[in-house]
Amino acid sequence: MKSKKIVIMGATSGIGLAVAERLAAKGYRIGAAGRNEEALRRLAAKYPGMVVWHQIDVTRTECVTGLRKLIDKLGGMDVYFHVSGVYYPNPALDHTLDAATVRTNVWGFTQMVDAAFCYFRDEHRGRGRIAAVTSVAGTKGIGPMASYSASKRFQNTYLTALDQLARSQGLKIRVTDIRPGWVSTPLLEAGQKYPMLMPLDYAARKVTRAVRRGGRVAYVDWRWRLLVGLWRLVPDPIWVRINPAGFVPTEEPR
Ligand SMILES: NC(=O)c1ccc[n+]([C@@H]2O[C@H](COP(=O)([O-])OP(=O)(O)OC[C@H]3O[C@@H](n4cnc5c(N)ncnc54)[C@H](OP(=O)(O)O)[C@@H]3O)[C@@H](O)[C@H]2O)c1
Question: 132, 176 in Cβ contact below 8 A?
Fold first, then answer.
């Protein structure tokens, strides 16, 4: 399905920005959002006539009316693409970091995908598509990133539930869950080594393809899909004895 109007939540940096640029170049009309107003202005200036924007913080209750304003600016929405997210490695279990993770990746995510679903159900003839960047981290609980991996599992489960809800209600709202491994973006700590790290441009190309194709679940990339397949085979009593240092940086950043 080649949709013309796509809202991208988290279009100011990293994967969301790179995908926004790719889609704008392919002729999609973009409704860009995030908190960084300067980045939103820059994106709109780079693609005149293709990008409208609205500043939205997904952790605030006003984000729902903010999405509505953005849809109006865009003249409708065919695809809602949720990319916004935070990652704080937290082996010390600092509760302020966990609170920030839950606020953005759980509560912010829920507010926004619910609002998108309701828009498609009530104002778009029961049709539309929700795509979201979750993560391979949702496959299993990962010790040094407990709240992050659990928040991504929440997102995976939520998207499956929305897919079932839409079908059971006879709605044509399709749901795409995009699960990347490590991607080189400002989300990651500078000075750390990340295994199987993908360049942003490479990952953004794969994510863009997944958004356009609209399958149910897409892993980025095939090596991560393979690794996740292996992780799944490991029973939890064995999983909890594995030292995660092989796939999560555990050194102090330089
Ligand atoms: N990089 C990786 O290795 C990797 C791997 C798997 C999955 N992911 C997922 O990919 C997504 C994008 O991450 P990235 O790597 O591209 O990181 P990034 O460059 O730090 O981008 C994060 C995006 O999320 C937005 N965001 C954060 N808090 C927000 C809030 N309260 N309200 C609205 N937007 C908010 C940011 O916009 P503002 O700051 O302007 O608000 C920014 O556009 C995240 O969901 C992340 O979990 C990343």
Answer: yes
